[in-house]
Specification:
- It contains 17 helices and 13 strands.
- With 495 residues, the chain is α+β, with helices and mostly antiparallel strands.
- Strands 4, 9, 10, 11 and 12 form a five-stranded antiparallel sheet that branches. A four-stranded mixed sheet has the order 1-13-2-3. It has a four-stranded antiparallel sheet with strand order 6-5-8-7.
- A hairpin with a 2-residue loop joins β7 and β8.
- α1 crosses α2.
Length: 495
Amino acid sequence: MYSFISKIIIFILTAGLIISLGVGSEFISFGMGKDVVAKVGNMKISKQEFEFFKSKKLSELSLSPSSKSKKAFIEIIDYQIVEMIANRKVMAEKAIEIGLFVSDEEIRNQIFDNNFLGKIDGIKDPKKYKKIIKQTFNIDWDIFEAILREEALSDKLDSFIKQSAHINQNQIYDEFLKSELKLNFIRISLNTQLEVQETFDKNQIDEFISNNSNMINNKIKYTDVVVISPDDLNRNIEINDKDIKSYHENYMSNEPYDKSFIIKRIKKEIGSKKIISELPIVKKLSLDSSLKEISKRYEVDFLTINNSSNNLPDHINSKLIDLKGTEIFYYDDKIWILSPSQNAYENPEYIVSLMKNRLRKKAESEFYQDLIDIYNENPKEFLKIIKSDDKIDLQFYYDESAKYNSTIADFIYLPDSSSVKKTPFLVNKKFKDYGYYLVYVEKIRLPNKDLYEFEKDRIGRELLREKSEYYSSNLKKEIISNIKVKLNNKYFDSN
């Protein structure tokens, strides 16, 4: 576990990313005293604490608060820092509620044990101690110690939650099978959109509206949505073999060398860093460009949803209620751009797009069902037959771990691997991601069960770590899910 001091440094360096780990807070503007930036419940976020984290973050980014070109970015950082502080205070409060405790002696020992104030064994003079804290951090000693105390309480709560996680031998053995069972398979997908009817007369449109009255209602409000994820920003990044091997050696040495999975991990980390710096760019684009233009620029979908569909995360859905113009939100490591749309009856383009989309989905479903029928009629010649269809794209995957392809593995083996299907075969299911696709399994390599005795301890530790992290993450989200942060409108725009 990190020391209290180390965790403070980590928080300082990653303050701009903390918000992506939570579920988002509700911010409301209120008038407060000049020394208070915000409140969460009855707890105050002091101006000193806020400025302490903000100055460190801006220093790390080589920005100044007066940087006009980065104003939008700094505003986002302000909200993120407030939320990070608010989350910490709420977690510490919950720790106290269940009886956890951090003494003054623990806090002082951590400060001195880390030699954070220089090589000083101890400071008996309170005045000298307070002066050194102020000189070192430009923050009053009591606020500094309160930060450390809250962080220590949060750590203790985290440890308390994680101790509730347990793993049994059956789970360890099943995980061994998933990790060691390897697949060669082909992903079969369309490389083009199927042609469907493009134009519709008034009678057809009226009939569609009549038959889908539950989905299309003139009283329902609609919102245009564009979502930009880290994957969209690193779509064309190439990762060379040297970097892949280096990453595996340094960060994944205890895991199997799975090239495609490692590339995904590397790209995810690159994208998560890039998404933050893309925020001010998107905000500037939104002033002069339509959402459709932005979606084309980033090659992402442009969606129109009805506000009652609950198709978006709860935190984003809550933003639709008072949406008056184009708004940009950073949530769940993604950039969300929302803008009020016309009501469905007033938007014939939207109705036609719904009609075409429904026809296209039906055509694609029927196309893949035809492929399944071809396989059932002539399994040995299946690949040869479909290779001649220029609409079909075949993607080959070799030595893939069943663990990272669980949706496919579910059709392949039982927990004890005693009844694995003979290969090759076509999985009798139409999978769906961003579009339909089929999976043709060429080869299955069963795990060497003799390895289990050597691997079970490592797998058990990893499973316990994953499960405890999962418990901790979900309970933390629940604890902070209803946070209401009251902002001081002297420091934050009340609009």
